[in-house]
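Hey, can you fold this?
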Amino acid sequence: MSIELKDPSLLEPRALIAGEWIAGASQADVINPATGEVVARAADLGVDDMRRAIDAAYAAGPAWSAKTAKERADILMRWHDLMMENQEDLAQILTAEMGKPIVESRGEIAYGASFIRWFAEEARRIYGDIIPAPMADRRMMVLRQPIGVVGSITPWNFPNAMIARKVAPALAAGCTFVGRPAEDTPLSATAMAVLAQRAGVPDGVINIVTGTDAAGLGLELCTNFKVRKLTFTGSTEVGRILMRQCAQNITKLSLELGGNAPFIVFDDADVDAAVDGAIAAKFRNGGQTCVCANRIYAQSGIYDAFVERLAEKVAALQVGPGHDDQTQIGPLINTDGVAKVQRHLDDAVAQGARVLTGGKAHALGGLYFEPTVVADISKGMALLNEETFGPLAPVARFNTEEEAITQANDTEFGLAAYFFSRDLSRMWRVSEALEYGIVGVNSGVVSTAEAPFGGVKASGLGREGSRYGIEDFLEMKYICVTL
């Protein structure tokens, strides 16, 4: 399949190691989920290649960290500018390999670039401290220095932004980077790396290792002592595996893991605004985001009105291939994703849930599934306990504020939560009671480079974005001088 690009060189199927583009001994097909066509044949590298990439990052580290903060910031800012100048081409590549509607892909490129700009600015704000000494002949200070080589493993659902959220603070801090993008979506990563080279990122500072051996490549990132930090976005199950593997070298970890986000609508909410917020939180990227509203709770007083209006608006969502500007819901990423949506739906219906709209594979066939709303959800249904990761919105009824909080917190996960209310006191009470790293109040879209992104409980460790996001890429050194 050909993608129409203004700059065809951005469609780069090779991997990047030490500034050289590597085709590898074998290649793997990158499939467009909307059509089943081959977009490109990407380099399918192995563990030895990963080791070479780590060595390259390790060798490039001293010179990169020795640059001034301003020098690193200027390079990052040029990278940001190139990303935005090539926004349309990057979006077309993203949609072709992932299936996301092109309008959302354009938004993701801007979102990803915003992290590069943010951390370009933060590079010049990495401060130390002078500590008042307890003795007259002592001088005491704290320095913050780059941790070293950073390994990154990113998912397919945001193949541009997830890398940007990790590589930008790493480079701003003075670290070097080895990225392993998801095997389904390697082309967004390599396109970013092409632009990074043009921006002046030195050879070896950014390395992109594409390949299908997820376990082998991940193990090398976890156990190679030259890697001093691993940052991962993906499932909690895989996160636990990586934690065990990183324990050998006490490798520092940032983990952005699974979510099971509740979306609560109280009686005093603006119902129309809540419906719009629920659609934004649930159906963005076809429900394939870690902060998707996985469980919707509506209070009894507005329950019927809410589910009726939600079903009406969801039924009008336009399903189709991502390259069409009118498309709002694209295909799911693979057959496993479709099967999970169907399994959750069948389980809910078998236990008494009502399908209000959708409820089956879409007439387009392939990996398309109808945007679906199901009402009368009850405890024990699989979709309350597992991330669906698809266009299925389940709605349950609740009576009291305490009941809503209890049900929302009844999960091992704690990434994002949402609620709608016009009661100012309730806004504070519920925000503080929800056991989540992110809480959206009267909004279904809350992520931005300026704010910390991350979860609690089994949803992960650390934060990305914001002024806090660079901390995990730095080591603290205490220096004591006797005069």
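Oh, and this one too while you're at it.
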Amino acid sequence: MAARSKARKRAVDLLFEAEQRGVNARDLLAERLAKPVTEAPLNQYTADLVEGVVAHWTDINELLTTYSQGWSLERMPSVDRAILRLGAFEVLYADDVPEGVAVAEAVELAKTLSTDESPKFVNGLLGRLIEVKPTLA
């Protein structure tokens, strides 16, 4: 697995854990940076991703809710929310990541971490965000 793919997985893990524990993802990130719980400390790209998602949290959630067509955020599996938040951040705000790469990475995370239906859902919703992106500025 490539370094950025691993960083994305760790970012999803942090976002998921923060939601499950009911803590702010930025606070959990700071805690993990100060006292790593694995042999390999979090890399900078993981930290940048989590910080980016948190910085755009409200906008990302609103967009996911608006374009998910009948699926509220609460109804989505928790891991899908984490994957979609990360994917939406990369698609909408990360200038150094091509949109297609962001979607492909999110779909791959959904394949390995979530339900059989999740990759298609993640692909469709992030694809829709790419379509409407020009109207969001």
